[in-house]
Write a structure and sequence with these properties.
Layout lengths: L3 E7 L2 E7 L3 E7 L4 H10 L4 E2 L2 E8 L2 E8 L4 E6 L5 H4 L4 E4 L1 E2 L2 E2 L4 H13 L4 E3 L22 H6 L1
Parallel strand pairs: 5-11
Antiparallel strand pairs: 1-2, 3-7, 3-8, 4-7, 5-6, 9-10
Length: 156
């Protein structure tokens, strides 16, 4: 049984109508444990999605990069309407976002947008990488003229 959200047109308004079956939901975890919790959710045969973005910057004239979470502490997962309890019992999951006693649904259109934006790199950040100056200017100390040693000073 597959879940989908269909849009129903009533006059000038469009209302979402939920069709029963599997849907996307969100669980909240401790942000530093997301990469430990995600495999545990996948072991429970749930599909997961963790939106990330790439950050590229220059430091000392050299390019640096890292991958960061777009929504730290949140993991999207697929679940059946009544089978989300086992995700809540996984160690590291703080809570499952609920609505009226069941796991809150994330619309397929919202998930489609998130997945496509993640794949296309819409949220990637480039800070000072493409500038001609190469970031901050590096100033060196002014060089002093070497001072003569003690013997040379005493002899003069």
């Amino acid at each position: 049984m597959k879940q989908s959200v269909e849009l129903e047109a009533e006059g000038n308004e469009v209302q979402p109508r939920v069709v029963e079956g599997a849907h996307w939901a969100v669980c909240q975890t401790f942000s530093n444990r997301v990469h430990r919790v995600r495999p545990e959710i996948e072991k429970a045969e749930r599909g997961t999605f963790l939106p990330t973005y790439g950050k590229v910057w220059t430091k000392g004239g050299l390019p640096w990069s890292s991958e960061r979470q777009l929504m730290p502490g949140y993991i999207f997962f697929r679940t059946e309407p009544d089978a989300w309890g086992e995700v809540k019992n996984i160690e590291g999951v703080y809570s499952v976002l609920t609505n009226g006693g069941s796991a809150g649904r994330v619309l397929d259109s919202e998930m489609r947008r998130l997945v496509l934006d993640d794949a296309m790199g819409v949220h990637n950040r480039f800070e000072g990488v493409f500038s001609d100056s190469g970031g901050k200017k590096r100033y060196s100390k002014r060089r002093r003229r070497p001072r003569p040693g003690k013997r040379a000073r005493d002899a003069a």
